Amino acid sequence: PNYFEAFRTFNRGTTIYDIEVKGLGSNTISVVDKAIELKDKGEYDRVWAVFDKDSFPDNKFNNAIIKAKDNGICCAWSNEAFELWYLYHFENRTTGMSRAEYQKAISKAVNKSPKYKRKTAYEYAKNDKNNYNIMTTYGSMDNAIKFAKTKSLEYSDLRYATHNPCTMVYKLVRQLIG
Q1: Phi, psi dihedrals of residue 142, rounded to the nearest 5°
Q2: Residues of the chain with pLDDT under 50
Q3: Is the pTM of this model over 0.85?
Q4: pLDDT tens-place string over residues 117-168
Q5: Bridge partners for 166 per DSSP
Q6: Dist. CA 62–CA 48, nearest whole Å
Q7: Which H or E run includes 49?
Q8: Cα 49 from chain centroid?
Q9: What are 146-152's contacts with CB under 8 Å, separation 24+?
């Protein structure tokens, strides 16, 4: 949720009037169910469900994405982990890895960035409120969008759990930046 909260103050030529981020920390289907509930209340222009594959069973992950589509909910899912989106700010990852491997790769990528000039080595932390600034200062959001979109176009079937690595976060980010 911290990453998306940063868009409240983001300005790239468009105005975001209101963003409400609800970190539910639950399973894939319950995130989609909550998104459907919010959409049905009619209080929002758009409702997105954001979740990872993580260790959820393939059928639950696939069914959550299908249920979201069937109910007009946009999905910014990642397989295997949201950290793929962060890593895409620095490099084009084409093979899957575990969450722990992503964490190490993100730390290494930030430390290797020519823009990173701090004396202490950076160590990735999942809930760091500065992750948005870190990724966009030392990496490139434009590259992340390009890499994520290119990889997502390689997949055409509905077996989303096999689309690894893949993230649809770029679609939500493109909307947020206008």
Answers
A1: -60, -40
A2: 17
A3: yes
A4: 999 999 999 989 999 999 999 999 999 999 999 999 999 999 999 999 999 9
A5: 79
A6: 16
A7: strand 48-52
A8: 10
A9: 147/88, 147/91, 147/92, 147/93, 148/84, 148/85, 148/88, 150/92, 151/92, 151/93, 151/94
